[in-house]
Specification:
It holds the Pfam family Acetyltransf_1. This protein has a domain of 114 residues: 3-Layer(aba) Sandwich (Aminopeptidase). The protein contains 4 helices and 7 strands, in the order βααβββαβαββ. The chain is α+β, with helices and mostly antiparallel strands. The longest helix is centred in the N-terminal third of the chain and has 23 residues. The termini are far apart.
């Protein structure tokens, strides 16, 4: 539809839009994991527990930031960064609602996260993702991220990426 535009702006991790997007993101990645490995969807009680436990409070300045993308004014996706040290930022919570994928929101969010990381002084962005999140891996590769050896031992981390920001 013509006239539909994307915007990306910082937003508190606990705003209503950010909270709804976090729940949508977590539901999708959790369901994909459980359907692949256990043939079931995420238990609603587990979803409630995990989204309440992982609030995103670390995505708050001066060491982090949550970005919310809107498409035609409506909340559509997120990306977060957190500084791990003076030079390294981690990209996290990259998500675009499925119905809006392929419309440019993912690259826009990642580039905005890179700009935010640079503004915090980072010279390198790292991230991890799962094997089954093939769309995410393709996006990161397309945007210049290179697969690296593991930089963490996250439970669900199966692929690790890095990109120089300067």
């Amino acid at each position: 539809m013509s006239g539909m535009t994307w915007t990306v702006a910082p937003e508190p991790h606990d705003s209503p839009a950010a909270t709804a997007l976090w729940r949508a993101y977590y539901t999708e990645v959790s369901d994909r994991y459980y359907l692949l490995h256990e043939g079931r969807r995420t238990d609603p009680a587990e979803l409630d527990r995990e989204t309440a436990h992982q609030t995103g409070a670390e995505l708050t300045p001066p060491k982090g930031q949550l970005l919310v993308a809107r498409y035609a004014g409506e909340p559509a996706g997120t990306a977060g960064i957190r500084l791990l040290d003076a030079d390294t930022a981690e990209l996290t919570r990259v998500f675009v609602h499925e119905t809006l994928r392929g419309k440019g929101g993912g690259p826009l969010l990642v580039r905005a996260a890179e700009d935010t990381a640079r503004s915090f002084g980072a010279t390198r962005m790292i991230l991890d993702t799962r094997h089954d999140l093939v769309e995410a891996r393709a996006l990161y590769t397309r945007l210049g991220y290179k697969e690296t050896p593991p930089h963490n031992d996250g439970t669900y981390a199966e692929h690790w990426f890095s990109k120089a920001l300067r």
